[in-house]
Here is the input.
Amino acid sequence: MVRRFGAGVLNPDGSVHRARLAELAFGSKPSRVQELNQIVHPAVIGQQQEWMEQLSRRDPHGVAMVEAALILEAGMAENLDHLVVVTCHPEQRIDRLARRLKVDEETAAAEVSRRMAAQLPDEEKVKAADYVIDNSGSLDETRRQVQEVYAKLRREANCSLSPRVPDDAKLRGRDALRTAGGTPALRKPVSREVVGFHGSAVRYGDRVEFQV
Here is the structure.
């Protein structure tokens, strides 16, 4: 990170200054977002896979959820069993971000525009989704949708145990782990569901979360 973006992206304690890094990546002409993604995404995906494997061993009936704004763009969807896309109206994104960051609407609008430029259009996300949660209504309505989706995922996780060992062509996230060399390695099938939670429109401040 420092080699590509300079020592200025670090805080005095050595941690990443996220705002400064975002300004360099998103604000540069041309944009350096892809350069940043090439650094960050492999490490994030590797840690994500390790975390999911730990969860599956601890709770074979569990539902693991990954909340991220760039699941499709980063190619993470292929490691997930389902994709949940959360949507809301563009003006709501601006209003909610302004309240979250305590900034004026003009600043929030610029930030939303910058973030959305790095993402696929909502229409493409919805096409790829297994479930869509409309987050444009009341908090109670959003909560109801979340509970319905989670109930379906729990039912599928509890019903998907099978003594069958799949062939290599049918290996999925719950049936295989990737070795260091990237080769599929069979393990005892479990019913853990891996779900991508595409949260680019997650409500800020009064966020709705899955109650596991």
